[in-house]
Design a protein that fits this description.
mainly alpha, two-stranded antiparallel sheet, 2 strands, elongated
């Protein structure tokens, strides 16, 4: 009977060691950053990472990631529907990709 309890205890310890919610959240966030197309996607996944740190009671990491998530989400909010460039990790500004003539900018006053 003692052997059964020992095996059960070891199995539970093994299984609990396999679960890493913060690690999973980090991996998901990095995957979204590499593949996301909108700032809203990055914001949403960054918030999940912040929540994982809160659940793990990792105050230092929580504070750090919350600050960065707030910045990501503010950027998304200010650029509603904005696109995200996974290569640079920055938002895409459509005007950046247009020539001055395309944007209607001229060098002289009207």
């Amino acid at each position: 009977m003692k052997d059964r309890h020992a095996v059960a205890a070891i199995t539970l310890l093994f299984l609990s060691g396999c679960s890493d919610p913060v690690g999973d959240a980090k991996q998901r966030f990095e995957m979204v950053k590499r593949n996301a197309t909108t700032l809203d996607e990055v914001c949403a996944e960054h918030r999940k990472l912040v929540q994982a740190y809160l659940d793990a009671r990792d105050e230092k990491s929580y504070a750090f990631e919350k600050l960065h998530a707030d910045a990501d989400c503010l950027t998304a909010q200010l650029n509603a529907g904005g696109l995200y460039d996974p290569k640079t990790g920055r938002e895409l500004n459509v005007v950046d990709n247009m020539s001055a003539a395309d944007a209607g900018v001229s060098g002289s006053a009207p």
